[in-house]
Amino acid sequence: MHLRLLLPLSLSLLVACSDEKAGGGDSGGADGGAADGADGADGADGADGADGTDGADGTDGTDGTDGTDGTDGADGTDGTDGTDGTDGTDGTDGTDGTDGGTDGGPGEDFALNGNWADSAGGDHSISNTTWSSYLGSQVVNLSTFDNAVRYAVGQNDPASAFNPGLWSRFDWTKDDADNKFFCLTAGAAATEAEALALTPADGADLINGCNGMAWIGLIPAAPPPSIEIAGLYDGSDGSVHDIRATEWVIDSSYSFRLTTIENSANFAIAQNMASNPSGGGLWSRFDWTVDTAGDLYMCHTASTAADEGAAFGAPPPAAAEPAVSGCNGAAWVRLTTAS
Question: Mapped to the 3 state alphabet, what secondary structure does the chain carry?
């Protein structure tokens, strides 16, 4: 949501000025006083500014004292010309409204930020920029959200398990007890504009208002466990490992959603993403160890287990000499932090 405010103000005042010269007072005779200023010509009214202040009338001359052959009264001073009205200062252009980050208003956070479990058994980690579900296997990179209208729209991450690269729309609502609910109104829109143009889910009908189904309740939850060796690494076999909090990506093309993380025992269980070039939908086990020199090693212990249980039950590799052997009859892969 973008807000732009422009308040132009311009004011100019045009001034016409005219001076009128008045003659002097009468010459002194028996009453030879100076000419009365009142009888002296009034100072010309100052030309109006543009409706500026009129010039002040000239002050009447004081009657001269009678005397013999009094001196002629001094000519009355012309009224001072009215000061031209000052041109009004142009109004400063209004500052453009600051974009609200990922919309939502300047500096405003998405109202659903946090970690949640849902009434359908899922999990969600939500921030101003991402909506991550199912232990990170489905990530939507949010492009915009609106807390007043209660929606968020974003593009599915290329590594997401479902509809990578397409667009999703989330609508959300809350009941009188402040319980929050969401509806995935669309998960495969072709463009952001298409997702934004969709008819919102019906927040007044929590039973059937979400694409004909019930809205999903959100329950505050603790953050999901994160793997302790998260980071970007070069492998000694030429591979590249992008290990995220709940995902292990190898060579940018093989992605594994971590479902069980046992940091104390140095292993994790993961489901192979369906988009992987091979083994999609099957299960993997990853083990890691650190040798006496402090070097980190990994072993892809199982890569084609039929289910999570089978991957969990795969025999762990021997870690006595990871640089030499122990991982499926070969050396473990040494991981070096990528430069």
Answer: CCCCCCCCECCCCCCCCCCCCCCCCCCCCCCCCCCCCCCCCCCCCCCCCCCCCCCCCCCCCCCCCCCCCCCCCCCCCCCCCCCCCCCCCCECCCCCCCCCCCCCCCCCCCCCCEEEEECCCCEEEECCCEEEECCCCEEEEEEEEECCCCEEEEEECCCCCCCCCCEEEEEEEECCCCCEEEEEEEEEECCHHHHHHCCCCCCCCCCCCECCECCEEEEECCCCCCCCCCEEEEECCCCEEEECCCEEEECCCEEEEEEEEECCCCEEEEEECCCCCCCCCCEEEEEEEECCCCCEEEEEEEEEECCHHHHHCCCCCCCCCCCCCCECCECCEEEEECC
Task: Please compute, for residue 182, the number of CA atoms within 13 A of its CA located in the half-sphere on the CB side.
Answer: 25
Question: Could you report the per-residue pLDDT of 173-223, keeping only the tens digit for each?
Answer: 999 999 999 999 999 999 999 999 999 999 999 999 999 999 999 999 988
Predicted local confidence at residue 92, as pLDDT:
39
- How far, in Å, CA of 128 to CA of 139, rounded? 13
Closest CA to 29 of 76, 60, 72, 74: 72
Does the pLDDT of residue 65 top 80, yes or no?
Answer: no
Q: Tell me the C-alpha distance between 206 and 215, whole Å.
A: 5
